[in-house]
Design goal:
single chain, alpha/beta, Rossmann fold, Arc Repressor Mutant, subunit A, 2 domains, five-stranded parallel sheet, four-stranded antiparallel sheet, 22% strand, elongated, binds calcium ion
Length: 218
């Protein structure tokens, strides 16, 4: 079943959208915060996200940047009361697929949801390969020497970043900002922790440590 994630803090609006989408045959998740939405996007196979901009804990634009930073290519429709041209431009340049100002008609939203869901698979899915590792961006499957390995969304994003920059030394700062969307915190060892997870899954020798600099895909 097609799964839609609604990230919206106004409960009535979220319930209204979910009711309509369920009637149209979609399964819905509702999250009232950016943090909650990102968790669901990481955990569930979401086909489309409807995203509010004014959220209590972070801006919808930040949510969108983090989603894209995690390698999530799911279509995102921004739904917000802020319908100024500047916000539209900000939304579309930060990786949204569509933008709707509130108030909106449900029929129009549904039409856009259907359009985005139809056009999503048409984006030519392609694979990134390096040595024995293949990462399919369309199906989000990763194989090592033909054997499928299960990666979390974050591990997937990390591997994707390495595969997009084969042979290059990637600093912790760069990995942190690309994969986690965070400014560098020199005390954080999250990158090292995730590189360790990744090595366990794709082979310890696949990622080389460059002392005091960062990591490189071998
Ligand atoms: Ca709001």
């Amino acid at each position: 079943m097609t799964q839609i994630l609604i990230i919206e803090d106004e409960a009535l609006i979220a319930a209204f959208i979910a009711k309509g989408l369920k009637a149209a045959g979609y399964a819905c998740f509702i999250e009232a915060t950016g943090r909650g939405g990102l968790k669901v996007a990481e955990r569930e196979a979401i086909d489309l996200v409807i995203l509010d901009i004014g959220l209590p804990d972070m801006s919808g634009f930040t949510v969108l940047e983090r989603l894209r930073g995690q390698g999530v290519r799911t279509p995102v429709i921004i739904l917000t009361a802020r319908s100024s041209a500047a916000d539209t431009v900000a939304g579309l340049t930060s990786g949204a697929d569509d933008y709707m100002g509130k108030p909106f008609s449900f029929d129009e939203l549904l039409a856009r949801v259907r359009l985005r869901l139809r056009s999503a698979p048409a984006e030519a899915p392609h694979a990134l390969r390096h040595g024995a590792v293949t990462l399919d961006l369309g199906t989000r499957r990763v194989t090592v020497s033909g054997q499928e390995v299960e990666l979390s969304a974050r591990e997937f994003a990390l591997l994707e970043t390495f595969l997009r920059n084969p042979g290059q030394v990637l600093s912790r700062e760069r990995l942190l900002s690309t994969v986690w969307g965070l400014d560098f915190d020199p005390g954080s060892n999250i990158v090292d922790v995730y590189v360790r997870y990744l090595r366990r899954k794709i082979g310890a020798e696949a990622v080389e440590t460059i002392r005091n600099v960062g990591y490189r895909l071998v």
